[in-house]
Amino acid sequence: MSTDQAAPERGVWRRLFQAIRKTGAYQSLGQAGGPARLSRVFSGSFCRALAADVSRSVPWKAVFNRPLPQTPKEQSEIAISSFWLHIHPATITRRSLKFSTTYGLGGLCAGLFMMLVGTGVLLMFYYVPATDHAYKDMVDLQHVVSLGRLLRNMHRWSAHGLVVFVSLHMFRVFMQKAFKAPRQLNWVVGVILLVFTMMLSFTGYLLPWDQLALWAVTVGTNMAGAIPIVGEKFRFVLLGGPTVDQATLIRFYVLHVVVLPLVMFIFMVYHFWRVRKDGFSGGA
Amino acid sequence: MATEDSVQPVAETDPKEYGLLGFVQGRPPAVADQEEERVSVYPHLISREFLAFGVMFMTLLVVSTLFDAPLEELANPGKTPNPAKAPWYFLSLQELLHYSPPFIAGFVVPSVLVLTVCTLPFFRGRLLVVPTGLLLATIIVPMFDGLIWNVIHSIAPGFADAIRVYGLPTIALLILTAVGLFKWALSSSMDDPKRAERISTRLFIVFVLFLLALVLIGEYFRGPEWKWVWPWQ
Fold this sequence. Notes:
heterodimer; A: 2 domains; about 0% strand
């Protein structure tokens, strides 16, 4: 299959049409004498045949430079040569692949972070961080903006989900003693990421500028005032004044959409890099 | 026909020689020739990642369709809700604020927790009971701050008022606990490494359960003036 590289200039649709007639995998779809079975569409052989054909088309090659890898050699090369995949090693052990090794928790955290960036940027198109504007924007998102309510809900639940999943991830790592040498520093980086997750969630909490936001942040920052000697000053700097006000809103907004995500991203990249470089801990 | 690419095995070129020094009990160390089976990341891991992300996305979509994010009335600095609650992940600290002064619940407890968790991987073997025990103690000891203060107050009221501000009894108790944990970790009762690890794991689990309980109490069982209410009241 993979050696058939002939005539890519004939176009993807024509190739697909030919493939449907030629390849056995497609036969059950439209064969005379037997009903087309939808289940076959989702079967592995059909998907593989379709993917192989699409990946030999001109547009595919223009984007990806190469057809989908078929042989084990091509498969291990793609993780290194592809920009998007090179965060992964070429191969991993079967043990790491097993669901009960990681429960996919760390990966889900990264996924939730991406969801939060995506929905967050879309929310920024509508939201103005001003005390006379923010709440109206929230109401507009709920009632006027197309899919605005869904967008806000997804951002909110992803944020809660991230706090939960980062904690679960940490609990899993502890239970497997996967923080042991040589992974000690990566555990510390993970703790920093947990703290940043909470700070991101906390700064985002204020932005809707409703009663829940104002008073939760008032209670939270009052605790910061308990730090000895510098507490009150620290609280003043955080709030931009003695109480939660416009100055606080813009500070929390800038922290929430620029400073904290950026720093968090840098720590995330370092966290992933260390996972690969450190290797397995002796603990498991 | 695709040509079969196979990985060439690396020749054994170990120049070292080994002699028998003695017998020890325990498992044999892992050596290179027992290398684990490896699979290529593409497609094995990539397909699982896409599946996991897809499931997560669909779940979020369903949850976000069914449940609306809360939005209360416009912020009003003149109208304090009773009780005013912090976000749920800070509720364990706010709950501790009910038992001990702000200096303890707002500063000492979070600082000790974060620092202890950070240094946790540097305590090896039997010493792991020190950080895990300290984490648990950092949650429990502040709850008895009021009780301890009452006892001291009945003996020396002036002194009690002074140390209440700085939360000295709690800090003293935490330091004592840390010293005690060190002594315990080094005692002969921890000679069995398996037992020591089991104990430290249990201490950590109890710590997590306590934290969880405080969050749930703060979220569902606290009403006006931070008084106990049942969720159905």
